[in-house]
Amino acid sequence: MNMLPSILQTWVVMFLVISPTLFAASVSRVDSYSSARKRHLREKVRKMFYHAYENYLTHAFPHDELKPLTKSFTDSLSELGNLKLEHLPQDYSGSALSLIESLSSLVILGNNTEFERGVLWLSDNLTFDVDARVNLFECNIRVLGGLVSAHILATDSANRLVQGSYNNQLLTLAEDLGRRFLPAFNTPTGLPYAWINLKYGVIESETTETSTSGCGSLILEMGALSRLTGDPIYESVALRALRKLWSMRSSLNLVGTTLDVTTGQWIGYSSGIGAGVDSFYEYLFKAHILFGKEDFWRMFQSAYLAVQKYFRHGPWYHEADMRTGKATYWQLTSLQAFWPGLQVLVGDIAAANSSHREFFYVWQKFGVLPERYLLDHQIIHPTEKYYPLRPEFAESTFYLYQATKDPWYIEVGESIVNSLNSYTKVEGGFASIRDVNTMQLEDHQHSFFLAETCKYLYLLFDDSFLVDRNIIFTTEGHPLPVLSSWHEKLPEAYIPANWTFPKSESQRRRRESAMTLQVCPATTLSLNHGDQQIESACHIPDVRGDHRCLSDEDCGVDSTNCRKRSCSTASYCGLWLVT
Protein backbone atom coordinates (compact mmCIF):
# COMPACT_ATOMS: atom_id res chain seq x y z
CA MET A 1 0.00 0.00 0.00
CA ASN A 2 1.79 3.10 -1.23
CA MET A 3 0.21 6.17 0.31
CA LEU A 4 1.55 8.79 -2.12
CA PRO A 5 -0.10 12.21 -2.33
CA SER A 6 -2.91 12.25 -4.90
CA ILE A 7 -1.08 14.54 -7.35
CA LEU A 8 1.99 12.28 -7.30
CA GLN A 9 -0.21 9.21 -7.76
CA THR A 10 -1.71 10.76 -10.90
CA TRP A 11 1.76 11.54 -12.23
CA VAL A 12 2.93 7.98 -11.60
CA VAL A 13 -0.04 6.50 -13.47
CA MET A 14 0.51 8.85 -16.45
CA PHE A 15 4.24 8.07 -16.53
CA LEU A 16 3.60 4.32 -16.50
CA VAL A 17 1.30 4.61 -19.51
CA ILE A 18 3.70 6.82 -21.45
CA SER A 19 7.03 5.12 -20.80
CA PRO A 20 7.21 2.04 -18.57
CA THR A 21 10.90 1.52 -19.39
CA LEU A 22 11.84 5.04 -18.44
CA PHE A 23 9.66 4.74 -15.34
CA ALA A 24 11.52 1.61 -14.25
CA ALA A 25 14.84 3.45 -14.59
CA SER A 26 13.42 6.36 -12.58
CA VAL A 27 12.25 4.03 -9.81
CA SER A 28 15.71 2.48 -9.71
CA ARG A 29 17.30 5.90 -9.21
CA VAL A 30 14.74 6.77 -6.50
CA ASP A 31 15.37 3.45 -4.75
CA SER A 32 19.12 4.03 -4.92
CA TYR A 33 18.78 7.52 -3.52
CA SER A 34 16.38 6.31 -0.87
CA SER A 35 18.73 3.49 0.17
CA ALA A 36 21.67 5.87 0.40
CA ARG A 37 19.59 8.29 2.42
CA LYS A 38 18.44 5.57 4.79
CA ARG A 39 22.03 4.40 5.30
CA HIS A 40 23.05 7.95 6.13
CA LEU A 41 20.19 8.30 8.64
CA ARG A 42 20.91 4.88 10.11
CA GLU A 43 24.46 5.98 10.86
CA LYS A 44 23.20 9.19 12.45
CA VAL A 45 21.01 7.13 14.77
CA ARG A 46 23.90 4.78 15.52
CA LYS A 47 25.99 7.76 16.61
CA MET A 48 23.08 9.03 18.73
CA PHE A 49 22.78 5.70 20.52
CA TYR A 50 26.49 5.41 21.26
CA HIS A 51 26.74 9.03 22.37
CA ALA A 52 24.02 8.30 24.92
CA TYR A 53 25.27 4.80 25.83
CA GLU A 54 28.97 5.63 26.20
CA ASN A 55 28.23 8.68 28.33
CA TYR A 56 26.07 6.46 30.55
CA LEU A 57 28.93 3.97 30.93
CA THR A 58 31.43 6.75 31.63
CA HIS A 59 29.45 8.89 34.06
CA ALA A 60 26.62 6.77 35.50
CA PHE A 61 27.19 2.99 35.27
CA PRO A 62 26.33 0.86 37.25
CA HIS A 63 23.73 3.29 38.55
CA ASP A 64 20.33 3.45 36.87
CA GLU A 65 20.25 6.48 34.59
CA LEU A 66 22.49 9.25 33.31
CA LYS A 67 22.24 12.95 34.21
CA PRO A 68 23.77 14.33 31.00
CA LEU A 69 24.04 18.01 31.94
CA THR A 70 26.05 17.42 35.09
CA LYS A 71 27.62 14.18 33.83
CA SER A 72 26.46 12.34 36.90
CA PHE A 73 23.88 9.68 37.75
CA THR A 74 20.55 8.99 39.37
CA ASP A 75 19.40 5.75 41.01
CA SER A 76 15.96 6.23 39.57
CA LEU A 77 14.36 2.79 39.61
CA SER A 78 12.63 3.67 42.88
CA GLU A 79 11.59 7.06 41.48
CA LEU A 80 9.83 5.82 38.31
CA GLY A 81 6.13 6.56 38.66
CA ASN A 82 6.82 8.04 42.10
CA LEU A 83 5.70 11.60 41.46
CA LYS A 84 5.81 12.59 45.13
CA LEU A 85 9.16 10.82 45.67
CA GLU A 86 7.82 8.92 48.67
CA HIS A 87 9.54 6.08 50.57
CA LEU A 88 12.85 6.49 48.72
CA PRO A 89 15.50 3.94 49.76
CA GLN A 90 18.52 5.01 51.79
CA ASP A 91 21.14 2.50 50.68
CA TYR A 92 20.07 1.64 47.13
CA SER A 93 22.89 2.29 44.62
CA GLY A 94 21.32 1.29 41.33
CA SER A 95 20.62 -1.82 39.27
CA ALA A 96 22.36 -0.85 36.01
CA LEU A 97 18.92 -0.06 34.59
CA SER A 98 20.18 1.68 31.45
CA LEU A 99 22.49 -1.25 30.66
CA ILE A 100 19.60 -3.72 30.97
CA GLU A 101 17.50 -1.51 28.72
CA SER A 102 20.31 -1.27 26.14
CA LEU A 103 20.96 -4.98 25.60
CA SER A 104 18.44 -5.69 22.83
CA SER A 105 19.31 -2.38 21.16
CA LEU A 106 22.97 -3.45 21.02
CA VAL A 107 21.95 -6.62 19.20
CA ILE A 108 19.80 -4.71 16.73
CA LEU A 109 22.75 -2.37 16.04
CA GLY A 110 24.91 -5.45 15.44
CA ASN A 111 27.25 -5.01 18.42
CA ASN A 112 27.37 -8.58 19.68
CA THR A 113 30.64 -7.98 21.55
CA GLU A 114 29.18 -5.25 23.75
CA PHE A 115 25.99 -7.28 24.22
CA GLU A 116 28.07 -10.20 25.50
CA ARG A 117 30.04 -7.90 27.82
CA GLY A 118 26.81 -6.51 29.28
CA VAL A 119 25.24 -9.95 29.72
CA LEU A 120 28.27 -11.33 31.54
CA TRP A 121 28.59 -8.27 33.80
CA LEU A 122 24.93 -8.52 34.83
CA SER A 123 25.32 -12.28 35.33
CA ASP A 124 28.13 -11.70 37.83
CA ASN A 125 27.00 -8.51 39.57
CA LEU A 126 23.26 -7.84 39.48
CA THR A 127 21.17 -8.54 42.58
CA PHE A 128 17.60 -7.72 43.54
CA ASP A 129 18.09 -8.36 47.25
CA VAL A 130 17.85 -4.63 47.93
CA ASP A 131 15.68 -2.56 50.25
CA ALA A 132 14.02 -0.56 47.48
CA ARG A 133 10.34 0.17 46.86
CA VAL A 134 9.68 0.07 43.10
CA ASN A 135 6.74 0.54 40.79
CA LEU A 136 5.58 -2.91 39.69
CA PHE A 137 4.62 -1.82 36.17
CA GLU A 138 7.85 0.12 35.50
CA CYS A 139 10.07 -2.59 36.96
CA ASN A 140 8.20 -5.23 34.95
CA ILE A 141 8.45 -3.58 31.54
CA ARG A 142 12.01 -2.25 31.98
CA VAL A 143 13.89 -4.75 34.12
CA LEU A 144 12.00 -8.04 33.84
CA GLY A 145 11.26 -7.46 30.16
CA GLY A 146 14.84 -6.45 29.44
CA LEU A 147 16.26 -9.54 31.19
CA VAL A 148 13.84 -11.99 29.57
CA SER A 149 14.42 -10.56 26.10
CA ALA A 150 18.20 -10.50 26.52
CA HIS A 151 18.18 -14.10 27.77
CA ILE A 152 16.28 -15.20 24.67
CA LEU A 153 18.76 -13.36 22.46
CA ALA A 154 21.72 -14.79 24.38
CA THR A 155 20.48 -18.37 23.92
CA ASP A 156 19.56 -17.99 20.24
CA SER A 157 21.43 -20.95 18.73
CA ALA A 158 21.17 -19.51 15.23
CA ASN A 159 23.15 -16.37 16.06
CA ARG A 160 25.51 -17.29 18.92
CA LEU A 161 25.56 -13.80 20.44
CA VAL A 162 27.40 -14.85 23.60
CA GLN A 163 30.65 -16.72 23.06
CA GLY A 164 31.68 -16.76 26.73
CA SER A 165 30.30 -18.70 29.67
CA TYR A 166 26.56 -18.10 29.81
CA ASN A 167 24.46 -20.55 31.81
CA ASN A 168 21.04 -18.86 31.84
CA GLN A 169 22.08 -16.35 34.51
CA LEU A 170 19.75 -13.65 33.14
CA LEU A 171 16.81 -16.04 33.30
CA THR A 172 17.76 -16.88 36.90
CA LEU A 173 17.80 -13.15 37.70
CA ALA A 174 14.45 -12.67 35.92
CA GLU A 175 12.88 -15.51 37.92
CA ASP A 176 14.24 -14.07 41.15
CA LEU A 177 12.67 -10.72 40.26
CA GLY A 178 9.39 -12.38 39.27
CA ARG A 179 9.26 -14.12 42.66
CA ARG A 180 9.71 -10.77 44.37
CA PHE A 181 6.72 -9.44 42.41
CA LEU A 182 4.32 -12.12 43.65
CA PRO A 183 3.38 -10.58 47.06
CA ALA A 184 1.92 -7.60 45.17
CA PHE A 185 -0.82 -9.88 43.81
CA ASN A 186 -1.94 -11.01 47.28
CA THR A 187 -5.12 -8.91 47.32
CA PRO A 188 -8.82 -9.82 47.63
CA THR A 189 -9.31 -9.02 43.94
CA GLY A 190 -6.10 -10.41 42.48
CA LEU A 191 -5.31 -6.93 41.22
CA PRO A 192 -1.70 -6.15 42.20
CA TYR A 193 -0.45 -3.29 44.33
CA ALA A 194 1.29 -0.63 42.29
CA TRP A 195 4.32 -0.73 44.60
CA ILE A 196 6.47 -3.55 45.94
CA ASN A 197 9.62 -3.54 48.08
CA LEU A 198 12.08 -5.89 46.39
CA LYS A 199 13.37 -7.17 49.73
CA TYR A 200 10.37 -7.01 52.07
CA GLY A 201 7.31 -7.24 49.84
CA VAL A 202 4.34 -4.90 50.25
CA ILE A 203 5.12 -2.33 52.92
CA GLU A 204 2.72 -1.53 55.74
CA SER A 205 0.06 1.07 54.88
CA GLU A 206 0.89 0.82 51.17
CA THR A 207 -1.46 2.71 48.88
CA THR A 208 -4.17 0.56 47.29
CA GLU A 209 -4.56 2.85 44.29
CA THR A 210 -3.18 1.75 40.94
CA SER A 211 -3.69 2.45 37.25
CA THR A 212 -5.30 0.38 34.54
CA SER A 213 -2.03 0.02 32.67
CA GLY A 214 -0.26 -0.76 35.95
CA CYS A 215 -2.24 -3.93 36.59
CA GLY A 216 -3.29 -4.75 33.01
CA SER A 217 0.11 -4.64 31.28
CA LEU A 218 2.05 -7.45 32.92
CA ILE A 219 1.06 -10.44 30.83
CA LEU A 220 3.77 -10.35 28.14
CA GLU A 221 6.80 -10.29 30.42
CA MET A 222 5.38 -12.53 33.16
CA GLY A 223 3.82 -14.88 30.62
CA ALA A 224 7.15 -15.19 28.82
CA LEU A 225 8.87 -15.87 32.16
CA SER A 226 6.45 -18.73 32.82
CA ARG A 227 7.03 -20.21 29.37
CA LEU A 228 10.81 -20.05 29.81
CA THR A 229 10.94 -21.44 33.37
CA GLY A 230 8.04 -23.88 33.18
CA ASP A 231 6.52 -22.32 36.30
CA PRO A 232 2.94 -21.17 35.52
CA ILE A 233 2.61 -18.90 38.57
CA TYR A 234 3.84 -15.71 36.88
CA GLU A 235 1.50 -15.95 33.90
CA SER A 236 -1.31 -17.10 36.20
CA VAL A 237 -1.27 -14.06 38.48
CA ALA A 238 -0.89 -11.62 35.58
CA LEU A 239 -3.74 -13.28 33.71
CA ARG A 240 -6.00 -13.28 36.77
CA ALA A 241 -5.40 -9.54 37.21
CA LEU A 242 -6.09 -8.85 33.55
CA ARG A 243 -9.35 -10.82 33.56
CA LYS A 244 -10.49 -9.13 36.78
CA LEU A 245 -9.76 -5.75 35.22
CA TRP A 246 -11.77 -6.63 32.11
CA SER A 247 -14.69 -7.77 34.28
CA MET A 248 -14.79 -4.25 35.73
CA ARG A 249 -15.44 -2.60 32.35
CA SER A 250 -18.56 -0.53 31.88
CA SER A 251 -21.54 -1.53 29.74
CA LEU A 252 -19.85 0.48 26.96
CA ASN A 253 -16.76 -1.79 27.11
CA LEU A 254 -14.71 1.09 28.51
CA VAL A 255 -12.34 1.04 31.48
CA GLY A 256 -11.33 3.86 33.80
CA THR A 257 -7.87 5.15 34.59
CA THR A 258 -7.36 4.45 38.30
CA LEU A 259 -8.83 1.87 40.69
CA ASP A 260 -8.53 0.36 44.15
CA VAL A 261 -6.88 -3.07 44.27
CA THR A 262 -8.60 -4.20 47.48
CA THR A 263 -12.19 -3.18 46.69
CA GLY A 264 -12.07 -3.52 42.92
CA GLN A 265 -13.79 -0.14 42.58
CA TRP A 266 -12.94 2.56 40.10
CA ILE A 267 -11.40 5.78 41.38
CA GLY A 268 -10.94 7.64 38.09
CA TYR A 269 -13.75 7.27 35.56
CA SER A 270 -12.30 9.39 32.76
CA SER A 271 -10.48 7.24 30.26
CA GLY A 272 -8.67 7.40 26.94
CA ILE A 273 -5.75 5.83 25.11
CA GLY A 274 -3.04 7.84 26.88
CA ALA A 275 -1.36 7.83 30.27
CA GLY A 276 -2.73 5.32 32.76
CA VAL A 277 -4.46 3.12 30.17
CA ASP A 278 -2.33 3.01 27.00
CA SER A 279 -0.45 -0.27 27.32
CA PHE A 280 -3.59 -2.09 28.55
CA TYR A 281 -4.92 -1.98 24.96
CA GLU A 282 -1.49 -2.74 23.52
CA TYR A 283 -1.01 -5.85 25.66
CA LEU A 284 -4.44 -7.31 24.94
CA PHE A 285 -3.60 -7.59 21.25
CA LYS A 286 0.09 -8.45 21.62
CA ALA A 287 -0.74 -11.15 24.17
CA HIS A 288 -3.03 -12.70 21.57
CA ILE A 289 -0.15 -12.70 19.08
CA LEU A 290 2.35 -14.09 21.60
CA PHE A 291 0.20 -16.72 23.34
CA GLY A 292 -2.66 -17.33 20.93
CA LYS A 293 -5.45 -17.21 23.51
CA GLU A 294 -8.80 -16.46 21.91
CA ASP A 295 -10.04 -14.52 24.95
CA PHE A 296 -7.29 -11.94 24.42
CA TRP A 297 -8.61 -11.39 20.91
CA ARG A 298 -12.21 -11.09 22.07
CA MET A 299 -11.30 -8.59 24.77
CA PHE A 300 -9.21 -6.53 22.41
CA GLN A 301 -11.80 -6.47 19.64
CA SER A 302 -14.50 -5.21 22.01
CA ALA A 303 -12.15 -2.67 23.57
CA TYR A 304 -10.88 -1.41 20.21
CA LEU A 305 -14.34 -0.83 18.81
CA ALA A 306 -15.33 1.00 21.99
CA VAL A 307 -12.29 3.28 21.63
CA GLN A 308 -13.22 4.04 18.03
CA LYS A 309 -16.79 4.79 19.02
CA TYR A 310 -16.35 6.90 22.15
CA PHE A 311 -12.84 8.43 21.98
CA ARG A 312 -12.27 9.14 18.32
CA HIS A 313 -13.09 12.54 16.87
CA GLY A 314 -11.83 12.67 13.30
CA PRO A 315 -8.09 11.94 13.47
CA TRP A 316 -7.90 12.80 17.19
CA TYR A 317 -8.69 10.78 20.32
CA HIS A 318 -10.11 12.64 23.30
CA GLU A 319 -10.94 11.24 26.74
CA ALA A 320 -14.40 10.19 27.86
CA ASP A 321 -16.31 9.02 30.92
CA MET A 322 -16.26 5.22 30.95
CA ARG A 323 -19.87 5.12 32.20
CA THR A 324 -21.52 7.44 29.68
CA GLY A 325 -19.08 7.79 26.79
CA LYS A 326 -19.34 11.57 27.07
CA ALA A 327 -16.19 13.55 26.34
CA THR A 328 -14.28 14.71 29.43
CA TYR A 329 -10.91 16.10 28.30
CA TRP A 330 -10.04 17.27 24.81
CA GLN A 331 -6.31 16.74 24.92
CA LEU A 332 -3.50 15.00 23.14
CA THR A 333 -0.85 13.35 25.30
CA SER A 334 2.49 12.21 23.94
CA LEU A 335 1.87 8.65 25.14
CA GLN A 336 -1.11 8.45 22.76
CA ALA A 337 1.37 8.46 19.87
CA PHE A 338 1.78 4.68 20.27
CA TRP A 339 -1.78 4.16 19.00
CA PRO A 340 -1.10 4.41 15.23
CA GLY A 341 1.55 1.71 15.64
CA LEU A 342 -0.94 -0.58 17.35
CA GLN A 343 -3.46 0.15 14.59
CA VAL A 344 -0.91 -0.99 12.03
CA LEU A 345 -0.72 -4.38 13.79
CA VAL A 346 -4.51 -4.49 13.79
CA GLY A 347 -4.65 -3.64 10.08
CA ASP A 348 -6.44 -0.31 10.43
CA ILE A 349 -3.88 1.48 8.24
CA ALA A 350 -6.02 4.40 7.09
CA ALA A 351 -6.94 5.40 10.64
CA ALA A 352 -3.32 4.94 11.76
CA ASN A 353 -2.06 7.20 8.99
CA SER A 354 -4.67 9.84 9.77
CA SER A 355 -3.83 10.21 13.46
CA HIS A 356 -0.09 9.86 12.88
CA ARG A 357 -0.14 12.89 10.58
CA GLU A 358 -1.84 14.94 13.27
CA PHE A 359 0.86 13.99 15.77
CA PHE A 360 3.45 15.05 13.21
CA TYR A 361 1.66 18.37 12.81
CA VAL A 362 2.08 19.02 16.54
CA TRP A 363 5.70 17.79 16.41
CA GLN A 364 6.49 20.26 13.62
CA LYS A 365 4.70 23.06 15.45
CA PHE A 366 6.98 22.79 18.51
CA GLY A 367 10.01 20.88 17.23
CA VAL A 368 9.20 17.93 19.51
CA LEU A 369 6.01 16.46 20.99
CA PRO A 370 4.83 18.18 24.19
CA GLU A 371 3.62 15.92 26.97
CA ARG A 372 0.09 17.34 26.85
CA TYR A 373 -1.59 19.49 24.20
CA LEU A 374 -5.08 20.94 24.66
CA LEU A 375 -7.02 20.19 21.48
CA ASP A 376 -9.93 22.49 22.25
CA HIS A 377 -7.63 25.49 22.72
CA GLN A 378 -4.75 24.43 20.42
CA ILE A 379 -2.20 25.24 23.14
CA ILE A 380 0.25 23.36 25.33
CA HIS A 381 -0.94 22.36 28.79
CA PRO A 382 0.31 25.06 31.19
CA THR A 383 2.22 22.66 33.45
CA GLU A 384 2.97 19.60 31.28
CA LYS A 385 5.20 21.35 28.76
CA TYR A 386 8.04 18.84 28.78
CA TYR A 387 9.39 16.25 26.32
CA PRO A 388 11.34 13.48 28.10
CA LEU A 389 12.77 11.90 24.90
CA ARG A 390 9.70 9.70 24.52
CA PRO A 391 9.74 6.99 21.80
CA GLU A 392 6.05 6.55 20.92
CA PHE A 393 5.96 8.80 17.86
CA ALA A 394 9.11 7.19 16.41
CA GLU A 395 7.59 3.77 17.15
CA SER A 396 4.42 4.50 15.15
CA THR A 397 6.49 5.98 12.32
CA PHE A 398 8.47 2.73 12.13
CA TYR A 399 5.31 0.59 12.04
CA LEU A 400 3.65 2.72 9.37
CA TYR A 401 6.72 2.60 7.15
CA GLN A 402 6.85 -1.18 7.53
CA ALA A 403 3.20 -1.40 6.48
CA THR A 404 3.21 1.07 3.59
CA LYS A 405 6.85 1.62 2.48
CA ASP A 406 5.77 5.20 1.88
CA PRO A 407 9.01 7.27 1.79
CA TRP A 408 7.15 10.08 3.55
CA TYR A 409 7.70 8.20 6.82
CA ILE A 410 11.45 8.27 6.20
CA GLU A 411 11.14 12.05 6.01
CA VAL A 412 9.25 12.04 9.31
CA GLY A 413 12.01 9.92 10.84
CA GLU A 414 14.63 12.32 9.54
CA SER A 415 12.74 15.19 11.15
CA ILE A 416 12.73 13.33 14.49
CA VAL A 417 16.47 12.63 14.26
CA ASN A 418 17.25 16.24 13.40
CA SER A 419 15.11 17.55 16.26
CA LEU A 420 16.74 15.25 18.80
CA ASN A 421 20.22 16.27 17.67
CA SER A 422 19.34 19.96 17.52
CA TYR A 423 17.47 20.34 20.80
CA THR A 424 18.45 17.51 23.15
CA LYS A 425 22.04 16.47 22.38
CA VAL A 426 24.59 17.79 24.87
CA GLU A 427 28.22 16.93 25.55
CA GLY A 428 27.23 14.43 28.24
CA GLY A 429 24.47 12.59 26.35
CA PHE A 430 20.88 13.47 25.47
CA ALA A 431 18.83 15.60 27.86
CA SER A 432 15.07 15.76 28.31
CA ILE A 433 13.32 19.04 27.50
CA ARG A 434 11.70 20.79 30.44
CA ASP A 435 9.74 23.34 28.39
CA VAL A 436 9.11 22.89 24.66
CA ASN A 437 8.34 26.61 24.34
CA THR A 438 11.87 27.63 25.30
CA MET A 439 13.67 24.29 24.76
CA GLN A 440 15.05 24.58 28.30
CA LEU A 441 16.72 21.26 29.15
CA GLU A 442 16.36 18.93 32.12
CA ASP A 443 19.20 16.86 33.56
CA HIS A 444 17.83 13.40 32.77
CA GLN A 445 18.45 10.79 30.07
CA HIS A 446 15.71 8.20 30.50
CA SER A 447 16.61 4.55 29.92
CA PHE A 448 13.84 4.26 27.32
CA PHE A 449 15.83 6.57 25.05
CA LEU A 450 18.27 3.67 24.66
CA ALA A 451 15.65 0.92 24.79
CA GLU A 452 13.11 2.44 22.40
CA THR A 453 13.68 5.87 20.87
CA CYS A 454 17.01 5.01 19.23
CA LYS A 455 15.90 1.45 18.52
CA TYR A 456 12.75 2.35 16.57
CA LEU A 457 14.56 5.08 14.65
CA TYR A 458 17.32 2.64 13.72
CA LEU A 459 14.79 0.01 12.61
CA LEU A 460 12.99 2.64 10.52
CA PHE A 461 16.16 3.08 8.45
CA ASP A 462 17.53 -0.48 8.71
CA ASP A 463 15.18 -3.37 9.45
CA SER A 464 17.69 -6.16 8.75
CA PHE A 465 17.28 -7.42 12.33
CA LEU A 466 13.69 -8.35 11.48
CA VAL A 467 14.63 -10.60 8.54
CA ASP A 468 13.73 -14.24 9.28
CA ARG A 469 12.50 -13.24 12.72
CA ASN A 470 8.90 -13.44 13.88
CA ILE A 471 8.76 -11.14 16.92
CA ILE A 472 6.72 -8.60 18.79
CA PHE A 473 8.05 -5.69 20.83
CA THR A 474 6.93 -5.11 24.40
CA THR A 475 5.73 -1.66 25.43
CA GLU A 476 9.37 -0.94 26.39
CA GLY A 477 10.67 -2.05 23.00
CA HIS A 478 12.11 -5.40 24.06
CA PRO A 479 11.72 -8.11 21.37
CA LEU A 480 10.01 -11.40 22.20
CA PRO A 481 9.78 -14.26 19.68
CA VAL A 482 6.43 -15.60 18.43
CA LEU A 483 6.90 -19.34 19.00
CA SER A 484 4.56 -22.18 18.16
CA SER A 485 5.39 -23.86 21.46
CA TRP A 486 3.98 -20.87 23.38
CA HIS A 487 0.60 -21.00 21.62
CA GLU A 488 -2.69 -22.57 22.44
CA LYS A 489 -3.78 -21.57 18.94
CA LEU A 490 -1.41 -19.59 16.73
CA PRO A 491 -2.93 -16.45 15.21
CA GLU A 492 -3.23 -17.09 11.49
CA ALA A 493 -1.62 -13.82 10.45
CA TYR A 494 1.60 -14.69 12.31
CA ILE A 495 2.20 -18.25 11.07
CA PRO A 496 5.55 -18.46 9.25
CA ALA A 497 5.46 -20.16 5.86
CA ASN A 498 7.28 -23.27 7.11
CA TRP A 499 4.73 -24.01 9.85
CA THR A 500 1.67 -26.08 9.11
CA PHE A 501 -1.34 -26.08 11.39
CA PRO A 502 -4.61 -27.71 10.30
CA LYS A 503 -7.52 -25.31 10.62
CA SER A 504 -11.15 -26.11 10.06
CA GLU A 505 -13.23 -23.92 7.77
CA SER A 506 -15.43 -22.90 10.69
CA GLN A 507 -12.39 -21.77 12.68
CA ARG A 508 -11.06 -19.81 9.72
CA ARG A 509 -14.35 -18.08 9.05
CA ARG A 510 -14.90 -17.24 12.70
CA ARG A 511 -11.60 -15.36 12.81
CA GLU A 512 -12.20 -13.31 9.68
CA SER A 513 -12.91 -9.69 10.44
CA ALA A 514 -12.02 -6.26 9.21
CA MET A 515 -9.00 -6.26 11.46
CA THR A 516 -7.58 -9.66 10.48
CA LEU A 517 -8.29 -8.99 6.82
CA GLN A 518 -6.74 -5.52 7.08
CA VAL A 519 -9.74 -3.89 5.42
CA CYS A 520 -9.94 -0.15 5.86
CA PRO A 521 -11.72 1.52 4.23
CA ALA A 522 -14.28 -1.09 3.16
CA THR A 523 -13.78 -0.78 -0.57
CA THR A 524 -14.85 -3.48 -3.02
CA LEU A 525 -13.50 -6.82 -1.87
CA SER A 526 -12.53 -9.53 -4.33
CA LEU A 527 -12.95 -12.12 -1.61
CA ASN A 528 -15.48 -14.90 -1.31
CA HIS A 529 -16.99 -14.69 2.15
CA GLY A 530 -20.33 -16.24 1.47
CA ASP A 531 -22.98 -14.56 3.56
CA GLN A 532 -20.44 -12.93 5.85
CA GLN A 533 -20.36 -9.14 5.63
CA ILE A 534 -16.93 -7.60 6.09
CA GLU A 535 -16.90 -4.08 7.47
CA SER A 536 -14.12 -1.55 7.62
CA ALA A 537 -12.05 -1.62 10.80
CA CYS A 538 -12.69 2.09 11.22
CA HIS A 539 -16.46 1.79 10.66
CA ILE A 540 -18.65 2.99 13.53
CA PRO A 541 -22.37 2.41 12.80
CA ASP A 542 -24.94 5.16 13.30
CA VAL A 543 -26.80 4.91 16.59
CA ARG A 544 -30.09 4.10 14.84
CA GLY A 545 -30.51 1.48 12.17
CA ASP A 546 -32.66 3.83 10.07
CA HIS A 547 -29.88 6.48 10.20
CA ARG A 548 -32.17 9.09 11.78
CA CYS A 549 -30.49 11.50 14.20
CA LEU A 550 -30.99 14.42 16.54
CA SER A 551 -27.36 15.58 16.57
CA ASP A 552 -23.92 14.63 15.24
CA GLU A 553 -23.44 12.46 18.34
CA ASP A 554 -25.94 10.00 16.83
CA CYS A 555 -23.78 9.50 13.72
CA GLY A 556 -20.83 7.17 13.28
CA VAL A 557 -17.84 6.85 10.94
CA ASP A 558 -18.39 6.00 7.29
CA SER A 559 -17.12 2.55 6.25
CA THR A 560 -15.97 3.54 2.78
CA ASN A 561 -13.62 6.40 3.61
CA CYS A 562 -13.35 6.49 7.41
CA ARG A 563 -14.83 10.01 7.60
CA LYS A 564 -17.04 11.13 10.48
CA ARG A 565 -20.70 11.32 9.49
CA SER A 566 -22.89 14.23 10.59
CA CYS A 567 -26.56 14.95 11.15
CA SER A 568 -28.28 16.86 8.36
CA THR A 569 -31.04 19.48 8.73
CA ALA A 570 -33.44 16.72 7.70
CA SER A 571 -32.24 14.65 10.69
CA TYR A 572 -30.38 11.94 8.73
CA CYS A 573 -26.79 10.81 9.20
CA GLY A 574 -24.51 11.07 6.20
CA LEU A 575 -21.53 12.75 4.56
CA TRP A 576 -22.62 16.23 3.61
CA LEU A 577 -20.74 18.68 1.43
CA VAL A 578 -20.00 21.95 3.18
CA THR A 579 -20.12 25.00 0.89
Automatic annotation (TrEMBL):
<keyword id="KW-0732">Signal</keyword>
<dbReference type="GO" id="GO:1904380">
    <property type="term" value="P:endoplasmic reticulum mannose trimming"/>
</dbReference>
<keyword id="KW-0378">Hydrolase</keyword>
<feature type="active site" description="Proton donor">
    <location>
        <position position="371"/>
    </location>
</feature>
<comment type="similarity">
    <text>Belongs to the glycosyl hydrolase 47 family.</text>
</comment>
<dbReference type="InterPro" id="IPR036026">
    <property type="entry name" value="Seven-hairpin_glycosidases"/>
</dbReference>
<keyword id="KW-0256">Endoplasmic reticulum</keyword>
<protein>
    <recommendedName>
        <fullName>alpha-1,2-Mannosidase</fullName>
        <ecNumber>3.2.1.-</ecNumber>
    </recommendedName>
</protein>
<dbReference type="GO" id="GO:0016020">
    <property type="term" value="C:membrane"/>
</dbReference>
<dbReference type="GO" id="GO:0044322">
    <property type="term" value="C:endoplasmic reticulum quality control compartment"/>
</dbReference>
<dbReference type="GO" id="GO:0005975">
    <property type="term" value="P:carbohydrate metabolic process"/>
</dbReference>
<dbReference type="InterPro" id="IPR001382">
    <property type="entry name" value="Glyco_hydro_47"/>
</dbReference>
<keyword id="KW-0326">Glycosidase</keyword>
<feature type="active site">
    <location>
        <position position="392"/>
    </location>
</feature>
<dbReference type="GO" id="GO:0004571">
    <property type="term" value="F:mannosyl-oligosaccharide 1,2-alpha-mannosidase activity"/>
</dbReference>
<keyword id="KW-0106">Calcium</keyword>
<feature type="signal peptide">
    <location>
        <begin position="1"/>
        <end position="24"/>
    </location>
</feature>
<feature type="active site" description="Proton donor">
    <location>
        <position position="138"/>
    </location>
</feature>
<dbReference type="InterPro" id="IPR044674">
    <property type="entry name" value="EDEM1/2/3"/>
</dbReference>
<dbReference type="InterPro" id="IPR012341">
    <property type="entry name" value="6hp_glycosidase-like_sf"/>
</dbReference>
<dbReference type="GO" id="GO:0005509">
    <property type="term" value="F:calcium ion binding"/>
</dbReference>
<keyword id="KW-0325">Glycoprotein</keyword>
<dbReference type="Pfam" id="PF01532">
    <property type="entry name" value="Glyco_hydro_47"/>
</dbReference>
<keyword id="KW-0479">Metal-binding</keyword>
<feature type="binding site">
    <location>
        <position position="475"/>
    </location>
    <ligand>
        <name>Ca(2+)</name>
    </ligand>
</feature>
<feature type="active site">
    <location>
        <position position="278"/>
    </location>
</feature>
